[in-house]
Task: structure prediction
Amino acid sequence: MSAIPISPVAEPWQLPSRGRVAMLSLIIGECGIFTIFVVAYIYYIGKSLSGPTPQQVLEIPIFNTVCLLSSSVTIWLAERQIERGKMKSFAALWALTIALGTIFIVGTGFEWHKLIIIDGLTIRTNLFGTTFYSLVGLHATHVIIGLIGLILILLFTLTGHINETHSERIQVWALYWHFVDAVWIVVFTVVYIVGR
Amino acid sequence: MADQTLPIAGALDLTPTQHRPRPLVEWLHEWVITVDHKRLGILYIVYSLFFLLVAGAEAICIRIQLALPNNHFLSPEVFNRFFTMHGTTMVFLVGMPILFGFANYLVPLMIGARDMAFPRLNAFSFWLTAFGGILLYYSFIGGFGLYGMGNAPDVAWFAYAPLTEKPFSIGHSVDYWAIALILSGFGTLGTAINIIATTLSMRCRGMTLLRMPLFVWLMLVVSGMTLVTITPLTAAQAMLLIDRYLGGHFFDAQAGGSAVIWAHFFWIFGHPEVYILVLPAFAIENEIIPVFSRKAIFGYPAMVAASVGIAFVSMGVWAHHMFTIGMTSVGNTFFVLSTMLVGIPTGIKIFNWLATLWGGKIRFTVPMLFSVAFIFQFLIAGLTGIMLAVAPFDWQLHNSYFLIAHFHYVLVGAIVMNIFAAIYYWYPKATGRMLSETLGKWHFWLFVIGFHITFDTMHFVGLLGMPRQIYTYEPDRGWGHLNMIISIGGFIQAIAVLIFAWNLIYSYRKGKVAGDDPWDAWTLEWATPSPPPVYNFATDPIVNSRRPLWDLKHPEDPDWKYES
Result:
């Protein structure tokens, strides 16, 4: 058995959390998908050959946006609560986050209902319809996936399966939710401000 | 101070496992449910080798068709399907899975970890990738749906719009193409995330980033590139499916959509993809050349920097595939210059390999033969690459056989050669047996000779004006003899690959027993038995330099004294 001397200075050995690294990698990958859809949206602004145009039919969803963005704050507060082991207030803030996310997705549903039924804009109507429903729909899909995760975590919390030892995993999922919110800022700017 | 040991002798349970005869079902079941990174790595490699044979057979059919003018060996429709499937298979079902297979097998071993960061995600990624491959090939049966004959994708591997739009590609072959690649793309994404998390979070004590083997470094870079490269393709394919199924207009010129934007989206993926394929080849090179030159790699930090540099530069060169589509002169100039910029980091790498060889005690084993051939061929591929990077030159020769020769020099001359080198080098680790050197040398020489007959000649038919993807040609063009020579070279390569396949099977049963460290190498995977046990290392290794096994074998002169 050969023993090798270690180098004189023993270095402290600390590595980043694998969950956080993986979630950040996933987010970088997701950014690739969103970038392509955003680029396509910007490229096709004003290129539709027929109506309706964004100016005619789009309304700025300010209430929805406020709800979604403030859910990032509530989830951040919830993260702080679970770190301190206050499970009751964690569950309350977590449920509030879910409520805000749900308001957003229901609001998107009403918006699409109006666009499809009243304005007659579908994904096949024109380029605006194609790019709008794909980009906003892609984001909405991510919100729904995020909500499913959030609801599962809430259920586990209410049945007592989650305590402060899980705070890191909770934070990893919260990271995804922050990403979904951050993407909305981009989508909102492109679709409702630049594109309109 | 001297109380820390590497798990070489005594630390592992070396009693031979009892081999009781087991039913085949049980054995298969173990392979299907496995989450062990080594088994998944082998599954990836076997899966890709299978598709290498399939896509190779397609290439041979293409070459028979083109060997003579006015030939009708294949029908025009089948010809189109074969070159599409050849390209798609080689890139997505051979190149990427085999390289991720090596990463899967080797990265945890090289960084002294017990498994990947997420073993179950790893298994999920593999089966997703495998399902994608099967789905793509199922299109031969199911492409037209139940009511018609089978029809594989026939839109070329870059699937330019508007050919892929519903009116021009009826049936489901394009849908198979898109869905299969989206699926295997998600598999690839999962593996890339896993490799990043593994390299950043699972390294053994002392394995700082600048002590990681260059193989691991390059796989980290490749995985990072994969994150931002595969996803644009996934997005573009999703758009294509929206067009085809939901009646969208992304690439529909009739409704104001743009076919050119598909080309942009595809090549934003397509060019970095080439680097995703070639960086693992560099990674393999970085391990093999030092070991068989008996020297530490020359310029380790420069190699790391060059790899990261290639990754960044490769993101900004895609439109050099589109000079003939038409761009502004500013666009042309930008992409000419950015493409030439790639030459600098790759040049650094080639010089570093040469400097590693220089003055070394070179052992020309089979892996080393392939590696040396790689340097030479990759240099030529780089030179024709610089020629094609010049926009006016590209206007003349774009989509000619010169271009085909150029990228096959990269894909076969560099990447496939290195895949062979890697299999000869690590086969003893994975199976415990050496591959036959005699058969290996036959394989090497036949393959190299066949390769040069085929692809050197291909440059000349390209210069004579033969375009890619044509079904046949008139005898008076003067391409006949050259095409015959190209096809003969193809057959020589096919024979070489069959020898290789036989070698893999033969040596598995009859090969020389390898031992733990047959090449006298320096990275951690050689500190485990061959094949390594499920848990890899019985005790977590501790590393003090870039060559931990050198330190162990030469306690009087360890590397860490010289590395700061």
Notes: Chain B touches chain A through 59 residues (CB under 8 Å).
